[in-house]
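Hi there,

I know you've been waiting on this one. I reran it after we fixed the sequence typo, so this is the corrected version. Both the input and the resulting structure follow.
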Amino acid sequence: MASTRVGVIGVGHLGYHHARNFAGLEGAELLGVVDPDEKNGGKAAHDFGVPHFRELDRLLEQGIDAASVVVPTSLHYDTALRLLDAGWDILYFPQARMLHNEPRGILNVQANPRHALITRNRFWIVLKRYPLPMALRYIAPRAVLWGCRSIRYGYTGSYLKGLLQFVRMVPRILRGREVITPATVRRLREIETSARGE
């Protein structure tokens, strides 16, 4: 039986162990690792005798059958969108819910810096990847809704900080937009519907 050709996207602390497990797993062949950090990527590549790529597209060119995505949480959504756009299915994608559900673990924490980052990243990902009319229909009502929630739960300062960071990034985001295909939008909606149990 042919080995399953795999890659690991993100080889920091946890991703390194994913790569190690794949490298020693019977029936799997580790074809490469992806990490923008030369130190992390170089170490994993050296230890497991595989190439290190700084870009996801280079790994996909290797003809892998599966990939383990072990990037920071703030990059889950964007990485998954890129994989979906390349024709891949996502087996486990909890972050598909990120754009539709308030992160419960950080409500009631006024000064939590993570909430500012989550606010910024929600809008940033949508503006960068979604078709512009869809992005605008998405951002406008949610900016108001999440603002009201921030008042209700007491994290208005963090919310406004994240929103301001996003607004400052808009010109740069618009210059570097990488819009997903309509087929990917449909697939993403299916995943989100499944994640909500509808």
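Quick highlight: The beta strands are 4-9, 28-34, 52-53, 66-69.

Best,
R. S.
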